[in-house]
Amino acid sequence: MVNRNPLAFGIAPTKDVLDIARRDYEKLKAAVQDQDPHEISDCLFNYVVTAYSVKDWLRSEPTVPREARQEITRIATSSMRVWPIREISNAYKHASRR
């Protein structure tokens, strides 16, 4: 299913976003291996924002059962494994502009 919203750039919900997060993660690993500070920063931003947004896509996916959506919310807000991604994503998104 292709998202018909012109601002979505043809991204279909959930699976496409998860695939983007996977590609962003691979780019981040490559940037770390190359030790390019600017590329690491860019890739880290892209990965954490995309990876953390997967939960929003899953919660709005009509094929995901209500109980699963509730569990996604619980994990996204309380899991120590998700905590670093949530914190970095929110820090990037809510940083003051200078």
List the helices and strands and how they pair.
Elements: H1 15-34, H2 37-60, H3 66-78, H4 83-93
Helix pairs in contact: 1-2, 2-3, 2-4
Q: Count all strands and give the number.
A: 0
> What is the CA-CA span between the terminal residues?
40 Å
Instruction: Give me the secondary-structure category.
Output: mainly alpha
Query: Over the alpha carbons, how many angstroms does the gyration radius reach?
Result: 15 Å
Question: In brief, what are we looking at here?
Answer:
The protein is an all-alpha fold and 98 residues long. It has helices at residues 15-34, 37-60, 66-78, 83-93.
Summary keywords:
globular; mainly alpha; 98 residues; 4 helices
Q: Can you put this structure into words, describing what you see?
A:
The protein is mainly α and 98 residues long. The chain has one domain (12-91). 69% of the residues lie in helices and 0% in strands. Helix 1 (15-34) packs antiparallel against helix 2 and helix 2 (37-60) packs across helix 4 (83-93).
